[in-house]
Amino acid sequence: MNDTNRITEHPVLSIEPGPTVTFYWNRQPIQARRGEMIASALIANGIHVFSRHPRDGSAQGIFCANGQCAKCMVIANGIPVKSCMTPVRENMFVECADGLPKLPDIPYNEPLRDIPLVSTDVLVIGGGPAGLSAALELGRLGIRCLIIDDKHSLGGKLVLQTHKFFGSVEDSHAGTRGIEIGELLAQQVKNDPQLDVWLESTVLFVFKDRKVGVLKQGAYILVHPRLILNAAGAREKFLRFHGNTLPGVYGAGAFQTLVNRDLVRASRRLFIVGGGNVGLIAGYHALQAGIDVVGLAEALPACGGYKVHADKLRRLGVPIFTRHTVLSANGCERVESVTIAEVDDHFSPITGTEKSFACDTLLIAVGLESIDEFTQEAHIAGVPVFSAGDAQEIAEASSAMFNGRIVGLQMAAALGKYNESIPDAWFTKADILKAHPGRTVIQRFPEGEDGVMPVIHCIQEIPCNPCSTICPTRSIHLDGDPIMGIPEYQGQCTGCGMCVAICPGLAITLVDYRSDPEYPNVTMAYEISNHRIREDDSVLGVDIDGGVLGEFKVTAIRRHRKTHTYLVALRVPREVAKRVVSFRIQDSDVTRPMEKPVIPVGKDDDIMVCLCERVTAGDVRALIKKGVHDINMIKAITRAGMGPCGSKNCDAMIRQIFRQEGVPISDIVAGTRRPLFVEVPLGTFAGHSPLGDEAGSGSGDGRGPGAGGEIPDVSGGTVHE
After folding, report:
1. What is the model's pTM?
2. Domain range holding 482?
3. Is the dihedral of CA 627, 632, 633, 635 positive or negative?
């Protein structure tokens, strides 16, 4: 087998082939990039079935790529592991988990070791935008922090974001790509002596003795903090539909992890469910990776994400089906097609409106759920706790960064290290940065047809101001609020094109009448380099909604040095020059429905809601109809929530069934959460690692989990009571 599914060209990411290792999949040797996760290596080699469910033998693959489900389990050197969180090693033997794995017979006959205890002023759970921003404020004030993150690098979801950020230039690096912001924050943390970082480490639980259990690269450690910041982010919500257990059904975060972090082409033909920013951005990332995006379905009458995100997809040739839902993912061992249908005002599918599309991947982007377990546990334990970012409230990363700064100062005040008042303007700005899209206006074009001028195709209020900030003549102004207003051009344009290059929504063009007033050059941003565009090519120019305006010739292509955005100029007739925004790259054949729709067999109650234990919606509904309103009782009878994910995926779907049955939220008794955040081998608590040195947790030196090294005391050895 060859790793033929590697991304070898990308418009934004630099691709440098690194060292490889050989490992074995079902005793067959295959190649992997050194240090990458087993799941990524398998998918790069065209392997998508990782295990077979012990109850029905059905194929399972990856879903979350974040260690919070168990669909990607494999057997590595005889040990069941999550392949998305376990790095591949030279000569590692990896096998498909067929049924319940046989636990290895490992004698724990070494003496038990003492569990190390470290102390710190602040424990920051999560090294994403909110956690890092808060920690930097705390470090600036001389407060010792320990940042814990389960990935091999800091940045959280920033490391997956190849697009330019919205928000405020001054406060959240708007106009800069997420991957670059992540690197910037990580470097600032590295340079602060007050901040210590544990990577490839997972917070497990906040105990009632005010200590926090941590799995640090396979070794169990206790941390005693004075304060806790929960910046653990969010998990993706799952969705109920026929075939939701098939390999090829991904969460958006998993897809972006494979494509943008690991440079694995996880799909050839992708369909998306969910029109929020997450789904819209993932579709754009897919196009950047050379993946066909067959379509996107959104149940609401309009996409909930930014209009400029949806417009980008439409302009490039991706159809968006509003008022549609997914009925089924179809296939045997993997997704082979998807079926959608229109919905009525009650979101029920309308019979006879079914459409099916050939695809190999169905991306689920139907919302996020805050990871609030650590906040609840800290409250119970009596440890002062703060939350920031998605762990506090689901919002954009630009909001998380600014919110993190505020929370950092609030924590410093709680420790007596900050005695000033946080300006009211900061809270006002925080509200703006997390605001949902506002009003949409009718597009207005600048007057005159001479000289050179920007045409702004951003007509929705969203928190974003790079265009007004970067204009050297200050000729772009925001109507109303300096962050949230709709941009307008009034002034003198020099034709520099900086506003075109920096716009996160790719929603500004530059119309230049100077050389030929009848056929001006229209310059637009372009970031899909694997769809080759050359000078003198003819392309289909489109308007703001993706409507074709004509076929136009490419007159010039240059790359903006700072943003790495291509600026493509088209020769366009005067009468449509101000309306051209972009050009189509996907052929209509890519997005054409199948001649005959695949109608799912079975009833809604046959659909799985607990994938770990194979519990159906009908199993849960039958108990609710009998008057069972306690999720713990549903768990005891059906085993829903008892699987490896610890109800992280099924809880929301069970609550949805309660709503369908008319049960008020106040009448539902919540399920008791599993004590630990993720599964841990019991021997780990005794100081042993069944994985051994060769199949460890992925520390860069290859020593494996718990392999030596002193545990630092990050606050001078004092345990604060």
Report:
1. 0.91
2. 452-591
3. positive
